[in-house]
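Summary for the steering committee. The consortium agreed at its last meeting that each partner would contribute one worked example illustrating the joint modelling workflow. Our contribution is presented below. We chose a case with several input lines so that the handling of multiple components could be demonstrated. No manual editing was applied between input and output; the record is shown as generated.
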Amino acid sequence: MAPATRLEYRNVTMRFADAAGRVLTAVAGVSLALADREVVSLIGPSGCGKSTLLNIGAGLYSPSEGAAFVDGEKVEGPNAQVAVMLQKDLLLPWRTVAENVMLGAEIQGQARTQRQRRAHELLEGFELAEFAGRYPHELSGGMRQRVALARTLAVDPNVLLLDEPFSAVDAQTRMVLQRDLARTLERAGKTALLITHDLLEAVTLSDRVLVMSRRPGRIIDEMSIDLPRRDDPLARRREPKVNDYVARLMDRLHIGDSALEAQAAGGNA
Amino acid sequence: MNARLFRVPPGTGASLALLVAFLAAWEWGPGLLNVPTYIVPPLSQVAKESVRMWQVNHLLMHTGITAAEVLAGFVLGSLLGAFIGYLLGMSPATEVALSPYILALQIAPKVAFAPLFILWMGFSVYPKILVAVLIVFFPVLVNVLTAIRTVDPDLINLARSFKATRTQVFWKIEFPASIPALFAGLRIGSTLAVVGVVVGEFVGGNLGLGFLLTFGEGQADTPMVFVSIVLLTVIGSLAYLAVVMTEQRVLHYLPARDHRL
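What follows is the complete predicted structure of the assembly.
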């Protein structure tokens, strides 16, 4: 039986020392839980600690207080149940597309024939089979991002942590990639935490959207998305209710409030 | 896609014309400008001298010895530089501990060590190889170290998120990521190896092109000096070309580059 909660943050606080030695609190007392197969988006202003939360979930950072749990087990380090995908595709230029897809499986010691079959299946599913032997520089940005998604799925994680995965591609490619991701998550029954700046992306891809405050990041709002077809964000985009959700998120993030716009224009942290 | 058609790049004709103009200027320029042949011997005299040296001075043997020393110095210096570069790259503490001494070794003029090495090792090939090793070592080390230090930390985190061990991070990410920089260091090293060997040959012994060069100087045999310089250039060029060809094979996965030096 699948556990009810796949990924959980319990009272997570993260402090860093900045270059001048001052202590910065990136996230403060964040608690959240993702049910099995749930897709949750996390939105918030730049520098609110979204990526920090993701790195804690991946076991790359240890929180100052609190802890993250995957399938009820405390995250003490990188974990085979969790896989990460970033805005940068991070494809290795010296590996072919298929070899890039197999990277994680290879590190985890999967047998060669098994990981080759898995890579082939995934590439087939993303209509990239004919590019298996090509090198990353021969691919377009959208194709590269799909290869990165295939690499994330190749280790068959239960939980996907996605940090603005499509923010570096053009708007039309992004819509197609969003659809591919949504279908994949639905079909494979994965649980996912998606960090995004794109409010429409958050609404059309998720079961639930969490809003974070400026630093120190706290969760200040939670919104269940009551729309059909989570596997088809293109269809969801046409739903009139989407506009209401986006409007509410804009209000919560104070978008358009001039004092905050300068900060919103700052870099992602 | 990317059909590899053989084509002559633009500028090839001009390059060949420059060669012909240079050779012509060498042959007839000194005569036209009334430069004595013991200052600048024309091309034909240098060619004639090379035939004479081949017959009388064992030119082939001297060239072979210099080439072998260059090869040995380059290979050993590169291996040492790469090894220490990776070692320091993997361990920042080692870098802190060793970098002042490595830097001091680089700043010390290594050619000045040549007489010392002759005192230690005699008139053999070893002091020449050792000077070359010391000169080649540093550019390879610095390139490798910089490459390891500048690997995108997100790539390393990606590997770590798949539960990669330190060794796996090195062999799957850091080492392959450093290869382009390693080759940049090897290119520099391949030309510097010739300098190290020639300096060693200047200082002691009676073998190699560096010896022939000083011998020619002592005899006021300018053509002999020219022949030696030309052959040293040929050895350096072949070493450089070998590195570039290896690089193109190894780095086949990179988009084709246009630079030619």
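Chain A touches chain B through 27 residues (CB under 8 Å). Chain A has a mean pLDDT of 87.
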